[in-house]
Amino acid sequence: MTEERPAYLSLKNRTVRRRTPQAFDRNGTATEPADGDCSDHEWPACWDAAASLLEWSEPYERIVDTENAPFYRWFVGGRLNAAENCIDRHLEERKNQVALRWEGKRGERRTYTYYDLYREVSAVAAALRELGVEEDDVVTIYLPKLPELPITMLACARIGALHNVVFSGFAPNALAERMQRVDSRALVTCDGSFREETVIDQKRKADTALASIEESLPTIVVDRLGSSHDMHLGGNQYDYDDLVEAFAGANVSPVPREATDPLFHIHTSGTTGEPQRMTHATGGYLTGVAWTAQTVFDLAPGTTIWCTADAGWITGHSYVVYGPLLSGATVVLAEGSLRYPDRHRPWEVIERNGVEVFYTTPGVIRTFMKWGESFPSSYDLSSLRLLGSVGEPISPDTWEWYYTHVGEERCPIVDTWWQTETGCVLISVRPGVDELKPGSVGPPLPGIEIQIVDEDGRELPPGEPGYLTIDRPWPSMLVPLEGDRYWVLAEYWQAFSNPRADSWRYFTGDRAVVDDNGYVTIIGRDDDVITIGNRRIGTAELEAAITTVDGVTEAAAGAERTIGETALCVFATLEQGQQDRTAIRNAVADAVAEHVGEFARPTSVVFTPELPETYSGKTMYRLLECIVNDRPPTDSDTLRNPEIVGELTTIWNQE
Ligand code: PRX
Questions:
Q1: Keyword set for this entry (predicted)?
Q2: From the CA of 440, how far away is ligand 1's center (Å)?
Q3: β partners of residue 630
């Protein structure tokens, strides 16, 4: 922060070019400014206003059914189709407007208008049906950032099938697990992708996963590598382009889904460490996403947004695919790493595409800081008008740098707090409405009520850190399948609810503090989940991989945040007499890459006589995070073995 600037930056009604958003009533008719502003209404009527941003084929009878709390049902009785809302309803007004601009790693470019999307989504939808995919079936999508990724998601939605996108960097084991857990009926993948100068054999990874499932699932393979590479199509495997050609011009009517029907599965990591199947329902999810796309990201027809997230992450679902397309915006999708072919790429993408809204993570911004301001300052970034951040706390320094060197002190920053489970942003400043406060995510959005509570669930006053909880249900909340209800209750509702009084409070797993104005600052996770490469990973999943290595008895993982990116650090204990530490170190790194994915490969593996443990025998991850991030260790008085803290700090510093 520079001294002259107040703690709260006033950009109120100043910098954001607000356009009248296109809104639709429940019959699909465009309405007057209906800006879906929740703040004008009481809960839950505020969400009725937000739902008017969607086109409903059947109006709902109830906004929210609270009878079976905390398994709330939103927009009961209503029917709608996600693909129709993202594509068809725009055709009359913006058929020829660009919906998607894709930039490949090798300089390739493709653009799709809304009409192009309509045609290709319909063809893929017809092909999926032909391959036996029916309404309510699940299709796993294992693709890097290619246009075929959003297209396949929407093709599933069109026929009422659920998509289950698995991050393309996951290893075959992780893919197989995530397919089995949702009983996937088909797979969409690609032959490979380019990583810098080498080729990643995505198809081989997919085939390995399929072989371990021992089922011959219909598989569609996108040709990314070109004619020089054989796609090795086996039985029941099809070339995406051939299918699109065969089904060109198909007319596939969008299947009207109940608002409460699931739209997709996505996996996340919770305290059990096992990846968990998360499910979002059609009407509620789309309402939350459409409303925040407009309110938080100021998206309107024709706005160009570049959200750097992968679609394997909820951020990609909500703000690369659904939010922007529901809003009639133009999506920029850039394949590959932001540093390839060189550090100019991010700025070139913004300049070339006239990006107005740029949404990324603090890790990426820290990398930009490391590269230096000369990169953004050599480009024309005047198209930018709004910046966003998500995924982890952004420090005031990083915020300042982003504000000054990317936003040119002109663009507000929305630091958006949300989760896979929440479906859409729940806490953020609204550009043009709220004042900005670096380091704080801002107030909860209208319609959202939060409380910071202590261990016993008592509300804490401003300034006192505690557990971040959400008091009232919201439309895009997690909607677990019947079989997931038990663990969902245990993981999210049990801690602070009082079922006897029918009083339910959602626990986010985060710790936070509010100020006197209700602005929230996120402290971090309270559970055994760490964020690497912006993916939430249960430490238990990592440790299970690490302890497959002979000689390793116990392990714990920590995330080191440097000025560059977040890296995984592993602490391990060894069997007596293990001498070859280098070999074990390499084996640990390989085991993580093999079982979880290359993206999670640890950058350091250190050996310790013991791990820091609480009296109940739980590893104290918060303490490890302090050590690897050079912060004074906290909470060591609750340790069974406090003497290990000093020893661990010494070992870490010698590494
Ligand atoms: O700890 C919070 C952190 O990321 C967690 C959710 O991770 P995931 O489900 O993978 O979704 C990430 C993208 C929505 C949260 O529990 N988190 C998310 N946004 C922020 C954040 N921490 C601080 N500031 C944020 N803006």
A1: ATP-binding, Ligase, Nucleotide-binding
A2: 13
A3: none
